[in-house]
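Amino acid chain
________________
===
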Amino acid sequence: MSDPSLRRYDLDWIRIGAFFLLILYHVGMFYVPWGWHVKSPEPVAWLEPVMLLTNPWRLSLLFLVSGAATRFMADKLAAGVLARQRAARLLPPLALGMLIIVPPQSYYEIVEQLGFNQGYLAFYGRYLTASGGWCDADGCLITPTWNHLWFVAYLLVYTLALAALIAWAGPALRQLEAGLARLPSWALLIAPILFLGLARAVLLPRFGVTHALVDDWYNHVLSFSMFLFGYLTAKSDTVRRRLISLRWPALFLALASYGAFSLYAWTWREAATEPAASLVLAMRYVYAVDQWCAIVAVLGFGARHLNRPYPALAYLTLAVFPYYIVHQTVIVVAGHHLAQSGLPQGLEAALLITVTAAACGLTYELVRRVPLLRPWFGLKPEPRKARPAEQVLPI
């Protein structure tokens, strides 16, 4: 085991990188032919394999890193205190998101897809009361909704579940942690692939991915297992060294499986017939190889090269959560209006990225300076500065 007092700067950098990849991914969702809240009138087919480069693993990696961060907090706090602190940190942003940040996404979604023309105020009243009745052939938009902030809701639920496990099954967690540390390198690579492939083969066809919490069982098995793995291995120097040793073979396997799955997805994306069941099953395991090996490669290279506090780390560590909260709404609103501007698509996309980055940056700069806003965007209250000695009045 490593020194429990040491901070894992590599995990901070990986978390930052994963969130910024997610922001770029959501810009891509505006242009890729897949369904989304709003869409460019000129979809870009070649973006599909580009999007698949991070699609299998980016959110799983975020849950893993979140589990690791929770470990460093949990070792300093009682289980009940951990649960209360995380609820106090995550509930305000989730509430703000569902009431203020997310509604414009739903508004522009029904404007584009259902031709809604009664204005935002009329929409918002129906949004709050879940009386919209916004339905089409693909289903109904249920409001209020959390859209991209489902990650925050799930993270809160997983943290509460983990706090209960710490309180009631602490010895079992410690045994599981010790067992993971004893895994040889080949098992650390292969066992999760088999688990992820089995979950994808058995649970995904039955439950899909809904982000609705109560019926999202495949996603829960995937995301909570990653969260728990991060928690159990965050302080294991043995696991860290094995991930470093696996980084190159994992990278090779991730790229090879990405190529195979992308070819499969591209070949069958507009096919009139379904691929053979055996091919679908095989691709579920190929997807799992990409999913886990990419994560191992990121963790291994990160542990090898990023475990140091570069100057920008402190700023970005705090900025990334406010960026995440507002980014998708900016993309949806700006994308909807930019698509009507008649600009060349390349210039339009560059402007969309620039506007998103600027809006996120301005939001963070405002939020971090206004004490009242900080908890609503997931920031701790600013520590009170001690007054200079000469200003302290004598008692």
